[in-house]
Specification:
It is built from nine helices and 14 strands. It is α/β, with parallel strands linked by helices. It has one domain: HUPs (Rossmann fold). The protein has a three-stranded parallel beta sheet with strand order 3-4-5, with helices on one face. A three-stranded antiparallel beta sheet has the order 6-7-10. The chain is elongated, with a radius of gyration of 20 Å. The two termini are 39 Å apart. The N terminus is likely disordered. Bound molecules: glutamic acid. The site of glutamic acid has 7 residues, from loops.
Length: 299
């Protein structure tokens, strides 16, 4: 599908294509299930497609076997995706082409700074040329002080200046890997994604990615940022915070817990142990307006 076909009415529905994009840095946990389920139900309730992308562009962070484990877990939870899985590790040529386009349009510049030197917000050290004696380490995309503004379907109007958020940001890393923002923007476009539903921990990232979409002349998808599950210390459930892996033996009850987390009705699926039935009922009753509009919820 070409980008121009976004929002083409299809048999009475607007064309919808969503996605789930896990990183194979470990098994899925309750926090990742929220993103998977939210994006799945939003797509299925709109008669849309739900694609799967494996964000395996960072080999040092990868855990052997995690990608396959994620696929098996999604299947055990009844979250069946459409089409074939896209693997970012196979997408180097597409990222290179996007980088080439940005270079040609003079949107990027070589940077010789280390992260320690720049801090989280890039001060612009190399944006007018590498200082004498400096070697290129990374490639950065220029930003302007115009705010990135969009309406998140749950969080409402967002307006963030990239100058204060990140400054000019890295799209090709010092270790020669393409950065997540570039890969995500290129792949969401290539997959024809119309709706991105994911955790609110990526709200800032969406601003960087919208800027990239604009620089690459892509259409900007709609966004819905779900609340993120956090522990009592306020840390996001993740491998780092030792969130337990999802257990396929408890798939039905875990799905119901995830639906409750998302503020959805669960009465019609309480009595069943069948994940397919739970998902069918949840698709019918899916109501994004019931999702708590917080960015974090304690579990
Ligand atoms: N793979 C990343 C993550 O799991 C990004 C997900 C996304 O872009 O939706 O946090």
């Amino acid at each position: 599908m070409s980008a121009k076909e976004h929002n083409r009415p299809l048999a009475g529905f607007f064309m919808y294509r969503g996605r789930f994009a896990p990183s194979p840095s470990g098994p899925l946990h309750f926090g990742s299930l929220i993103a998977a389920l939210g994006s799945y139900l939003d797509a299925r309730s709109r008669n849309g497609e739900w694609l799967l992308r494996m964000d395996d562009l960072d080999p040092p962070r990868e855990v052997p076997g995690a990608a396959d484990d994620i696929l098996r877990t999604l299947e055990a939870f009844g979250l069946q995706w459409d089409g074939t899985v896209m693997y970012q590790s196979h997408r180097q040529a597409a990222y290179q082409a996007a980088l080439g386009q940005l270079q040609q349009e003079k949107r990027v510049f070589p940077c010789g700074c280390t992260r320690r030197e720049t801090g989280p917000v890039y001060p612009g050290t190399c944006r007018n040329g590498l200082p004498a004696g400096r070697e290129q380490r990374s490639v950065r995309l220029r930003v302007t002080d115009e705010a990135i503004a969009f309406t998140d379907r749950l969080q409402g109007d967002i307006s963030i200046s990239l100058v204060t958020l990140s400054g000019d940001f890295v799209i090709r890393r010092a270790d020669d890997l393409f950065a997540y923002h570039l890969a995500c923007a290129v792949d969401d476009h290539a997959q024809g994604i119309t709706d991105v539903v994911r955790g609110a921990d990526l709200l800032d990232a969406s601003c960087n990615q919208i800027w990239l979409q604009q620089q690459l002349h892509y259409l900007v998808p709609r966004y819905l940022h779900l609340p993120v599950a956090v522990n009592t210390r306020g840390d996001k459930l993740s491998k780092k915070t030792q969130a337990p892996a999802l257990n396929a033996a408890h798939a039905a009850q875990t799905l119901v817990a995830a639906l409750e987390f998302l503020g959805q009705q669960t009465d019609s699926c309480m009595g069943t142990a069948q994940v397919e039935e739970i998902l069918a009922a949840a698709t019918l009753s899916w109501d994004p307006a019931r999702i708590p509009a917080a960015t974090q919820i304690l579990v």
